[in-house]
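for ur thesis appendix - Mediator of RNA polymerase II transcription subunit 7. copy paste whatever u need, i formatted it the way the template wanted (i think)
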Amino acid sequence: MDDDDGELRNPFPSPPSHYTKYTAHNLALLALYNERLPHHPNPVQHQVLSDQTDVPDWPLTQLEKPRIDWILEEPDAHYDVFGDRWFVKDKIPSLAELGGTQLYPEDPSVDRRPALLSILRSLLVTYSSLMSSVLAPPPTLSATEPPEWQGHVEWITVLAQNLMAAANDLRPVQARGNLELMMRRQLELKREETKALHTKCNVLEAKLKDLRASAQLVSNFSSARGTVDAVMTAASSVPSDATSVQQEEVLRWSEEIG
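the 3d part is after this line
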């Protein structure tokens, strides 16, 4: 009972029980069997693989992959999985193929807007007629014809089915348009991020340029100051009568450099 409850709570169906047969050993035996079969007189599996161990009792041909080319050769290529039928080429059936009354062109290359506008106008007119028939007095007991409102409701149902079917046919176009808009928005965001990075790099480059200029100025000032100190030291060693003149020249020269 617990296993049944667990199976019911599982949102996905369990895999088929024969999935355990797809082991590396069994697949190797299958490849060896297919290789020896054309050259062996007896197609019995155990005789073809008599020199092998752990040969299963069930046919190894069950492990063969399905022939996709055979499926594609069919006019309506399909396959069955867990009791459901799936078509290889997914196609949305039209309203006419589903048994309904289709009032717009089936060919998607034909412009459907005039037909859809006519359907919409017919829907509005029929709805107005339905309101009038609902306000009409009820039929007598001897009346055998169906009430007028019943025909209006049936026609409104047909018109609504055509509008919904035409809208469903445009779902792929809508999805493609949404995808294009999303990709364009992502491209715009990438361009904006790239532009912001370039702007930041330009700002940093300007700051580095200013720092280099400041460092060069400090270096030049330090070298000039060292030169002044050397000149002053040399001037101190000259006779006293020329010291004042040389000091004045050195100070004038340092002011010109500064």
